[in-house]
Amino acid sequence: MATHYDVIVVGGGHAGTEAAAAAARMGASTLLVTHRRDTIGTMSCNPAIGGLGKGHLVREIDALDGVMARAADRGGIQFRMLNRKKGPAVWGPRTQADRGLYKAAVQDILTEYPHLSIAEGGVVALNRVGSEINGVVLESGELVLANAVVLTTGTFLKGLIHIGDRRTPAGRAGEAPSLGLSDDLAALGLKLGRLKTGTPARLDGRTIAWDRLEMQEADEVPRPFSFMTDRIETRQISCGITRTTAETHRIIRENIHRSAMYSGQIEGIGPRYCPSIEDKINRFGDREGHQVFLEPEGLDDDTVYPNGISTSLPEDVQEAMIRSIPGLEQVQIRQFGYAIEYDFVDPTQLDLSLAVKSAKGLYLAGQINGTTGYEEAGAQGLVAGINAALFASAREPVHFSRTDSYIGVMIDDLTTRGVTEPYRMFTSRAEYRLSLRADNADMRLTPKGMKIGCVGAARAARFLSYSQKRTTLSLQLENLTASPKEMEAAGISVNQDGRRRTAAEVLSYPDRSWDDICRLWPALVAVEAPIAEAVRIDALYAVYLERQATDIARVTSEEARIIPADFDFDSISGLSNELKLKLTRQRPNNIAQAARIEGMTPAAVALLITLLRKSV
Ligand code: FAD
Hints:
about 35% helix
């Protein structure tokens, strides 16, 4: 290990992996320091990648040449496109993953980066000169210097595991917590909070009565996450579905006072959208029973993850509760469920590049910023890694916008609004979701990534060829036209008004398929399926996108009005003291961010714009 790097990344979870890989892709000499090399890429909770909103993040990480999608393609054992009944804008690509294969894929991909070194060890402190961070101190006492440091310590900061009334300091099951760093962050003047999350028990699949369960299959043709994957080679499996019963609910209700979450032991706030089974019974009632997906954790691993029943009840209650569920009457438990509380840093103290505003050279990404989920962590890691590398070489930061990506939506939400509970991505958070689709992530972000320098040569070449074919086809579809009579003859019903329609127009109805237009223009049969599909979806959304374009242009121009980091909000006369305080505290990066602060009126925004113009 050298004694100086451009970038040091602390933590080899999902955020750390992407941060280290991104910094290395940018050409920065990068050190990833993590407790254990063999836990890099570990899925702490559910063995799955993607889902609603989360799948978009994975596609965006991939478009910027990140690791997660490629690893998911190698480890994915049940690919399913969620939300298919709705429009393609909100489809959610998801796969269950073989934990071992996924982790091996991540570790293998990280060996591809020549600028990346990996060291095992715990970081106990940040090294600083004034408020500038210039390295880390390891448990061994060794000091390693760097131009920028990215912290991605997940649930480890003062982590405390709860099972019933038993409490164990831990980062996650079986791993020690990280204690010194929280105090260091507090000493920098950062505001920390406490959150919690939970996980269910793990079951021995050989003791489940699978023949009595409803089974859910993978999609017939698994669709890869990564633009770089041609097809999924891994065997696909089914998972089982069962439900909690009246007996399950009785056991939980009678013992709820023994749950760590309800006995008053836990102060942290949990994820509302990923509730424990105790929460579900308490908040949503129990008449219908709650669905439980029994997800095998691997092809050669008979451990099963019961998705939907995370809990912090004591072990005897967990056992009785689980055995009251159909198919699980004889089940053996391999590891009990638990809740974990940990420190997080209020993310409003970060700017849009995920740099800590008050400590130069320090970046934070992942669960440490109050988010939950591998995908949210990975996406932040990527942004922090890119920006740490830019900072290390004295280049300007790169920001993502609500108008270009879910990544931009998440970072804007975190840094402008902060979190009151673990933040999770949803498609409903993205106001421009018709243009921010999973299917067009490459078109939206790969050119930006190429400009930034985080996209490798192989992807860039493949992308350029793809986008050229796509653009040519779109133009072709604008130029091909058919009369209503020709359309009728091809079996496409249309108003017989004599008006010729372009191929793009013919495709712009949800019930039209590529086969329909191939009947009119047979040469189109030769178009590669992924390109045909992409262009069909573009045609479907064309009208809405035109309408959205004006909004996007306005936001983009507001984002271009940068507020200097030392701007004196206090000096603005005509602004309420409350607003001055909020602006001073949150220090928005630009007018778009300032406009989203609660209480900002159009008049206040106009005033700010006028003063900014004067101050430049
Ligand atoms: P992690 O994946 O936790 O990785 C942190 C890494 O940093 C680890 O490798 C650790 O060894 C290393 N590290 C920590 N401190 C130091 C240090 N001082 N020095 C060196 N290395 C260090 N997500 C969901 O979406 N849904 C859920 O239901 C859900 N439930 C969860 C339940 C539990 C019990 C846990 C632990 C997590 C759960 N998650 C859930 C969250 C998901 O696992 C995380 O959001 C995700 O892993 C966060 O990624 P990360 O990279 O920020 O941190």
